[in-house]
Amino acid sequence: MVDLASFHPMEITCPDSGPTHTGAALELVSALVQVDLIKGSSEVKGDWKPLLFIFTDGKPSDIQKYRQMIPVIKNMDFGAIVGCAAGPKADESFLKELTDNVVKLDTTDAATLSSFFKWVSSSITMGGKSQGTGESISLPPPPSELNIII
What angle do CA 125, 122, 72 make, to 5 degrees? Predict the structure, then answer.
């Protein structure tokens, strides 16, 4: 985890094929949040609620671990969890098990990806809810390039 001012997005190169260890990724996210997140108290100003964005071009290869981690992640105090199924091989049904906020990118061209990340950025600016308030954020409407999955 890193504060927003220090965040520098990295270039992501998607392989043509290979395993998608989404359960292991959620396990790592859980461990990092448990260690790094500062909860507020009367003596300490806590961190803002973290936002979790899961971007996949397939489906979990470690389905048992993924399903084991779903209740763990849901019980953590995220401001929002957003799943993004990118490309024709992406299976959004697994993301829908984790969150109601799922978008589908039919293509992964530069314009669509750029639109998605601009939407993510606007979502981050709306994420100003303190950890422990019990409030979740409302995501802004996505651009037309993104298909909302219900």
Answer: 75
Question: Which strand ranges, in their side-by-side order, compose the sheet holding 80-86?
Answer: 51-56, 80-86, 101-105, 147-149
Q: Tally the C-alpha atoms within 13 A of residue 142's C-alpha that lie toward its C-beta.
A: 21
What distances in angstroms separate CA 134 from CA 37, 61, 76, 112, 130, one per listed residue? 15, 33, 11, 33, 9
Query: What is the signed CA dihedral for 59, 114, 136, 77, rounded to 10 degrees?
Result: 50
CB 73 within 8 A of CB 130: no
* pLDDT tens track for 14-72: 666 678 899 999 999 999 999 988 888 888 888 888 888 898 888 999 999 999 999 99
Separation between Cα atoms, residue 109 and residue 88, nearest integer Å: 12
| Tokens linked to 114 | 């750029």
Strand partners, 85: 56, 104
Residue-wise over 49-63: b if at least 16 C-beta within 10 A, else e?
A: bbbbbbbbbbbbebe
DSSP 116: H
- Spatial separation of the C-alpha atoms in residues 117 and 140, rounded to whole Å: 13
